[in-house]
Amino acid sequence: MKIKRSERLIDITRYMLERPHTLVSLTYFANRYDSAKSSISEDLSIVKKTFRERGTGTLETVPGAAGGVRYIPEIAADEAEEFVKEMCERLSESDRLLPGGYVYLSDLLGQPSVLRQVGKIIATKYLEQPIDAVMTVATKGVPIAQAVSTYLNVPFVIVRRDSKITEGSTVSVNYVSGSSDRVEKMELSKRSLKRGSRVLIVDDFMKGGGTVNGMKSLIEEFEAELVGITVFAESTFSGNRMVDEYTSLLCVDDVNVREKTIHVQPGNYFTN
Amino acid sequence: MKIKRSERLIDITRYMLERPHTLVSLTYFANRYDSAKSSISEDLSIVKKTFRERGTGTLETVPGAAGGVRYIPEIAADEAEEFVKEMCERLSESDRLLPGGYVYLSDLLGQPSVLRQVGKIIATKYLEQPIDAVMTVATKGVPIAQAVSTYLNVPFVIVRRDSKITEGSTVSVNYVSGSSDRVEKMELSKRSLKRGSRVLIVDDFMKGGGTVNGMKSLIEEFEAELVGITVFAESTFSGNRMVDEYTSLLCVDDVNVREKTIHVQPGNYFTN
């Protein structure tokens, strides 16, 4: 029995959404639904149009015998802005203020709906650049790295500050923690990154930039290539920041421990 | 201009897939597409049928004025089995063997396509039980917890072995590491879990069960409720395992360090 167009559209949508940045041939769908390639081709233009109109992303058509379609997730600029504004409000809640002027983020970065948006927003920034891996440092960067890697459909690697026997041989670097001026160590499993990989660094929070700088050194040690740096939130930093080029979704620009107020504004994501 | 059925089907599919376990009213879709509720109702039956036939999950209809539809992600049994078989082969690769008989897993648990399946498989196990949060221990459990939480659409919380100033007040417990008989400490941010929460524990690997047992104690300290325990892989353990009831996707049942062989079979997920 032939599959109806309506059912094909639903299943194609699901299939493509689950496989971002993956080329799927028309033949695959033609076989899957026992339908003519011409019908599949029409289906795909409807999906493409709807994705574009609803801000779901781009369905890219690759012509030729080895061609097919590829789904590129993308967030619409106004949806991204609205989300970042909402996050500014959430981050400004005074009960997030911790001793030492730190801001509690773990609840937000443990919510699937927040991580979905953060992942899409960061991925949208790097649509034009080929990326082989997303890198972050344990523990709080992990959810962000995973969210981004889902939408870019590339693996993520986790740099650790503590050595673990379950990682095998590692490469380590020393780095200066910008905010405390202490020298610390971070390491990455040797087999987790190939030479020449193009790497995107993400993290939850950046103050002095020391941790991000450590990851940059690691990328050099692996003879890999840095594509970009994006953090969920940065805080204004009075000293010399160790990293110049980066993108932030949010900027914590004032923390008043005595009056228990936090002021947060959108980061340089929209202006960079 | 009215939106055509074909475009509605595509957008409804996308909208529901992005919001598992969330009740969406017919009125919402009727407004979104400026269409009659009767048309939306027909759309939803087509989506429901296709989701069922293609093993995408269940589109549950909730009748009444406060009703609507809810998408419950679910993996088909044969797709789950096929994936677990593939993982058995991947885990058996001899170059995963690390000194001490440990098995290198980080590459697999950093791949979005693997995590998607692991998340779906574990979530499918707990469809009938209400869950408020997924709990895991840093660092390697995090990707699994996040994947599961995406499909259950509940937050995940991360237990840590090291104290961090960015977590605020914490509750800590001591636990006995089953494999080494050492007493260690783990802690969880006080504000991350409400009293009475129903908690699902997940982790990457279980040997003696000490870590999982520690998380069980933490759940008690928070006066929360344990719903279940699922690990990606367990290894056969000669001593007394500290945890009785758990589910595993994979079972590493023989590691021969001298001959460099690892034998892995499906865990008790399919028989439990």
What features would you describe in this structure?
The structure is a homodimer of 272-residue chains. Chain A has 272 residues and is α/β, with parallel strands linked by helices. Helices cover 33% and strands 28% of the residues of chain A. Chain A folds into 2 domains: 5-73, Winged helix-like DNA-binding domain superfamily/Winged helix DNA-binding domain (Arc Repressor Mutant, subunit A), CATH 1.10.10; 77-270, 3-Layer(aba) Sandwich (Rossmann fold). The first copy, chain A, is built from 7 helices and 12 strands. In chain A, a hairpin with a 4-residue loop joins strand 11 (247-256) and strand 12 (261-266). The longest helix of chain A is centred in the N-terminal third of the chain and has 17 residues, at 37-53. Chain A starts with a helix and ends in a 6-residue tail after the last strand. Chains A and B meet through helix 1, helix 3, strand 4, helix 5 and helix 6 of A and helix 1, helix 3, strand 4, helix 5 and helix 6 of B. Chains A, B: GO terms for molecular function: DNA binding. Chains A, B: Homodimer. Chains A, B: This is Purine operon repressor, PurR. Chains A, B: It comes from Carnobacterium viridans.
